[in-house]
Amino acid sequence: MEFDLGFGAGTQKLTVPDENLVCVMLPNPVLHALTGQEEVARAMKNPIGTPRLKQIVHAGEKIVIITSDITRPLPSYEILPLLLDELYAAGIPEADITLVFALGSHRKHTQAEMIKLVGERVYHEINCIDGDDSDCVHYGTTSRGTPVDIVRAVAQADRRICLGNIEYHYFAGYSGGAKAIMPGVSTRDAIQSNHSRMVEQAAAAGRLEGNPVREDIEEAAQMVGVDFIVNVVLDEHKKIVHASAGDVVKAHREGCRYLDKLYGKPIAERADIVVVSQGGAPKDLNLYQTQKALDNAKHAVKKDGVIILVGSCKEGLGEHVFEEWMTKSPDAHGMIERIQKDFQLGGHKAAAIAMVLENADIYLVSELEPEFVKQIFLTPYTSAQAAMDAALEKCGEEASVIVMPYGGSTLPLLQSVR
After folding, report:
1. What is the CATH number of the domain that holds 300?
2. In whole angstroms, what is the distance from residue 9 CA to residue 278 CA?
3. CA–CA dist 28, 50 (Å, integer)
4. CA distance 23 to 42
5. Residue 226 gets which letter from DSSP?
6. Where in the sequence is the domain holding 202, given as residue range(s)?
7. Cis before residue 282, ω within 30 degrees of 0?
8. Domain count, the chain
């Protein structure tokens, strides 16, 4: 069977022998009555757990909208015009609305990137800024001891509206919802404290109840106050197929249930070889982001198998602490030992990769220099086909293969352990 796997702005071609292929993890067939802006409009007219947005806000109030940065596929440019129109209808002038990009621990944007994310109309109508974690307001600490320090532009607003897309997250359960606040507009220390709980067993993809990371995030958001959210689920073409709006928890949960219908993929058994792609740009901009697909793929590979990770990574590793851990560690296992003694944000993703390497080889198909890839304990390839040929040689001609073309969004659910 032939595949065109997303790779940056293009694709990587791959042929897998039919006799080896046991599963292709594509989105489940779910009927979409509405898509795009029509679906967003439907959700905003039918909020979950709150009144309509125009009934929440009042003239004279300062409004802040928090949206995703360039590393996320959220089509803010589709959501924001509808959101602004509703705010204007409620008597809120342009001057009283600020849009803050939730950077978390990521780099700042160029002007061109901001315009690409929100569209020309929105960029020129309202003030659009990057979150500045050097200027924050302290709210206290959560019951788990996480400091709640929030970007001042967000903290000083009268109303806070959070946007996001929902997909599986390897230790917060799902993205979206309160993650716009934590880690979106929080300090590095706060993010580090929250993410340190990733080592707990209950911090897992697809899990909300009892997940210490998600519960800590939502406690922080409750302390800050979120008045309204608009979250969307995207299909494999990055098009909006579902939206939920309203309460920061209730609307988020409704979106998570929809995601499970679309992207939860039961499997009878693990495979010898798993091929996984993030689906292309912007999700595979760097290894820091591409790692998310790897962490989903680990649920589908057999012990001592091979994961072929397909991602451009044209901007390199993507985060300085992550890079320091990946390039300075004497071996992969040392990163696991280090995270248990000294949790560091950025290092957590290095340790996550190391944990996968404990059970499987990782063949990285990327634009990174081969010698550099070897230095970070992965096996380099420039083409998915070359990686597949090598994996079949290692695992045998009868090796079973699972292909995950949209690995960051697709979660293998092993039936025998559910």
Report:
1. 3.90.226.30
2. 12
3. 30
4. 35
5. -
6. 36-262
7. yes
8. 2
